[in-house]
Batch of 4 targets.
Target 1
Amino acid sequence: MNKSIAILFLMFLCQNSFAQSAFRIEGQINGLKGGSCILANYVGTSLYPKDTAQADANGRVVFEGTKPLPGGIYEVVLPDLKTLIKLFIAADQQFSFVADTTDIIGSMKVKKGRDTQLFYDFQRFMKTKEDQAKALREAKPKDLDKKIKDLQDQRKAYYDQFMKENASSFAVKIFKASVEPELPPAPILPNGKTDSTWLFNYYKAHFWDSFDFADERMLRTPFLQQKLDRYFKELTVQTEDSLNKEVDYVVGKAMAGKQKDVIGYTIYYPFNEYQNPKIVGTEGVFVHVAEKYYYTGIMPLSDTSSLRQIKERVNVLKPLLVGKTIPDLGVLGLKENMVFIHDLKGSYNVLFFYMPSCGHCREAAPKIKAFYEKYRTQGVQIMTIATDGNQEDWKKFVKEMQWENLVNGYGPVATRQLSYNKDYDVVSTPTIYILDKNKKILARRIGEADLEPFLKMYQQRTAAQAKTSK
């Protein structure tokens, strides 16, 4: 009697323990001889550890926890930190798999994990057809083209059937998100060529058609980040107005999906990407996102200090964006006179903020002089502004760099109290601006090596616009 009660009690404990596991993923990984494995999920294109488990000497490993895993694409990272086993986490969170490290796709078998099994079934079929096509190309039979087309038809038929039969699955949603928009036949131009502009516009207009912003699980896949990268960096003209328009378009799609975290990610992406952008003149995107989404509370912040810091940054950037007239500044000249930014007479005016004690500034100084000598006949004028140090060091630096033909200013003595950091965004030296003849900012915070390429590009673009306007 006591023995029976003990057995029943043990059974109860086992059942209760199993019930407490909101997720349990058991893997048998042949070829793995023990070691620590990581279960990691995607956020953007990066992997973040979610759980760890120790594999035994036979390659058996179990991940489990008392809280359900957020849905998405996960990777089992093996001890070598190179081998990854992809898992699709959706409704099925109590499943097992068997795989071999020598051929994960070919060997994978999954029990009760439908989305993961669907993924590997799909990959296995497609890989088989790719291998068959490769073998045909190497063998070069007489009817090669026909056999390749047969394989392509088989792939297409399988794809269509797979997508139809498994339409409600998370795996199909992932496949749809990863495919390119299918392009219809493009119109033919009068010259007989395909209208490539029409094709581009169609592609861009349908780029987001198969991406489900209403599915919060998409945040934990690489595809949202990848699509944002492609859309903004490759399909959008890198100007403030064009980028701002597309930001609002994509955020609008996310807001229609009503998933808070997805909305937040699509807002944070341009906010982060264009705060210190690689493309000249696109900081205005950061300002636009801050004012439209952070100031209004559409993008909530956990504390008021973060919003205050954002506003402080916007207040610095807004007067200094490309297209704005730079605030005037008067500093002490070599002849004990005051020299002013707005008194520069060049068609193109370069401001070079520097410190005489700065090593990078010293390296850049000869390049600044060489640029001036090469382009002064094209209307280039340069004003250097020393932001600190004593006058003796400043004058010594100017003489050593042979800057006598430049407009040189000693910045600590100015016509008004200023902070170079706040008033001119000089957070490091050297800091370079390019202005037009009206002192409107053409480029800001570019490197000395970028001066010549930028000037050439700007001149070419201006000439093309003038030709078009005629």
Note: Confidence is low (pLDDT under 50) at residues 5-18.
Target 2
Amino acid sequence: MDVAPRNEANGKTIVLFHGKNFCAATWRDSIAALSEAGYRVIAVDQIGFCKSSKPLNYQFSFHQLAANTRALLADLGIDQVYILAHSMGGMLATRYALLYPDRVKGLLMVNPIGLEDWLQKGVPYIAIDTWYQQQLKLNAEAIKRYQQSTYYAGQWRDDYDIWVEMLAGQFAADRDKSAWLSARIYDMILTQPVVHQFKDLQVPAWLFIGAQDNTAVGKGFADEAARAELGNYRELAAISVSTIPDARLQLFPELGHSPHIQSPELFNQALLKALRQLSSRH
């Protein structure tokens, strides 16, 4: 967990949830911008990820990860927070807001996965052992190829290399353990959808969407017809913002899955504007 120092503190706390192939560190530009704006920033590496412990037999569920985060905040004496979440973190943030609505002042989700239920849209169930065998083959070249096509809309800059090295380094350190944990986390993501409960959210929400994103968990296991219908983020964002009772949408037409990394200045400007608007409601 990284807790950024406050600069002319505004008394507000924001908790950052990372994605499946990310760490808290991938929020670094947003952490700096939020801290400069006076927020207390808490960036958590969830259990099984990055700097946190990695128990092989942990029962991964979004409920459990949400409960862990709530316990951490309680220990820090923090009651109400804004949540900023990316990718898989959006599924976790949704679950957190459903479990603890009175403790969430605003839900800000950046290209959250889980805007569709993949198992209902043509992705077959994928056994953990199948995920495990796939993840054993992961290497830096494959990571870069996927990130370029999905995270950055086909573009690449040298400053993206660090995030390839971050993920590849974890597998290099312990390939078997990393592949097994990755497989169990993929199983959690695929089998614990949150989209069906968007209508039940009781907190104000903002969606920040890079429209060039095409992420869909398990897409590679689906047939060609199903794959063509998955991961349409422009469409999914419009549906989601109409389903969540109190939601707004910020679209980045030229950006991919990681707008906070691909264009941090543009993203942070939109983020701080949204936070000001949310703050004015309290």
Note: The domain at 2-279 is CATH 3.40.50.1820 (Rossmann fold).
Target 3
Amino acid sequence: MAGGSPSPSRPGATYAGAGVDIAAGDEAVERIRDIVATTARPEVLGGIGGFGGSFAFDPARFRRPVLVASTDGVGTKAIVAQAAGRLDTIGIDLVAMCVDDIVCVGAEPLFLLDYVATGKLDAGQMESLVAGVAEGCRQAGCALLGGEMAEHPGAMAPGEFDLAGFAVGVVERDASLGPARVAAGDVLVGLASPNLRSNGYTLARHVLLERAGRSLDDPAWEGAGHTLADELLLPSVIYAPAVLAALRAGGGAASGAASGAASGAASSGAVHAAAHITGGGIPGNLSRILPTGCDAVVDGTWARPRIFEEIQRLGDVADDEMARVFNLGLGMILAVAADAVEPVIEALAAAGRRGSVVGSVARGTGRVTLAPGGRS
């Protein structure tokens, strides 16, 4: 081996000296081992620490299973979490962004992998982040199958981090939700979102922290009993379990998957499609479930959380811009058969999520019309 021994006056280079602490990584893995175990489903084989996570998928539960996958991150909400020093809930946001995408196809979330990159690995910080991911997985009913913690000195400053995830679910092939099931006359049922969830934070930070000069320690708004940090770091609602409950109640895509029994011929179901309201807002995401020849007409009468009013007022943000960026109080919208709206809303309520009629599908050219206003 070339190079010889290091000079006594100049110690040899080490990975730790260059900025990567393997020992801290090992400590972080040990800290999260028991946390990850709390998310295990019966199909999970082994624990963390191997080269890959193993999931013993049971195809007998389905006639023609289709695996559905999605990947996402938490965006610049991570900057708010870092600035506030609160890292234990942002993992819930990560899970929500991933599993609520795949449930829009009708898929039951099975497992999730996470990826954390940081400038300097701190075992306590990693434990807090992964604890949030694990809590999100428990809420979603999926396993945290594995992940990666990467230390990137030079690319990121100490304390900085980014968080990403990858989720996999399953649905019967002939029971998938989507535009092919949607028709004029369908009713739009919105699921309430109490906050920004994990979208639009670049604009929110610009308006609230830069333009308005607010501090994260200030009241969220005049007279609020909680801080702006409290408001901005409220974790995202995870809608997947409630949507699956609505599908089961309506005889749709999740009926066989969620029961654990092989299903018969798939029903068209009461729920025809689902739109996860993330980046692009209501118009940008609702348009993704419209078939050719249909419009979505959204009435704008649901209650909008106060935070949206504050952002719009302090930033003088136009209505169209608000609608393109934020969820405005609806985190998920379902297209439902007109004669099944009541049982679907009841199923959502039984699963702990409030749903209300917010519009309808009509003949048209693929447009989404969003009425201005809304109740705050």
Note: Residues 179-370 form a domain with the Phosphoribosyl-aminoimidazole Synthetase; Chain A, domain 2 fold (CATH 3.90.650.10).
Target 4
Amino acid sequence: MSLTEEQIKNAVKERYSKLAVLSQPCYGTESDGPCCDSTLPKGMSLPSEALSIVASCGSPLANVQIREGYVVLDLGSGGGVDVFRASKLVGEKGKVIGLDATPGMIFRARETAKKHDYRNVEFRLAEIEHMPIESNSVDLVISNCVLNLVPDKQLAFKEIYRVLRPGGRISVSDMVATQPSRKVVNPEEWAACIGGAVTFDEYKDLLQKAGFRDIKGLDESHPINLEMTSKGIQVKSVTWKATKPN
């Protein structure tokens, strides 16, 4: 039997609520899933409180140029690592918004921002499919191993397209399946960034249907084989770049 949207969302929130209270970096094991295969920023001082709960599978900020004054939106911002990193790139005239559906993550990220006096960031509690973000207001959308967790990916990409300004871009690191997804998965597989992963071609098709152009998928790593079930599921990390036409 297939999972309901409610089952998926509950499993995801439970997993990342637990991660929100960790105090040690999550480097990932086969049982953790690829969303804990963290790629920590280098050459930049970041709050240890955010670094201690990194959950990522790529480097979205390493694949895109950010100008001072940009408005950047980080989807599934978690403890805020990419938000805090981007805040130093957009400067005082720019702004970075972190959006996450887990209350514990939002609370922790806000406390970190307050403690370290980040004045050009804010964190909002919401789902990607229904974002409290003004249309045509964002220059760049980033995300790190999150959109594979969303049940209705087409709706999520339509929302991303809506909030971007004409000419706005995305740089999204995500897990994709190296073979067609199975029809039946369990909530734990989905929350581990595996069960909800679609293939490279399916992902590209979702972006095209949402209206994006200049779509490129850059491999971040070799395939990761995780024996989550008796059959095993193979996924890999890809960073997607695309543009909303002017």
Note: The chain has a mean pLDDT of 85.
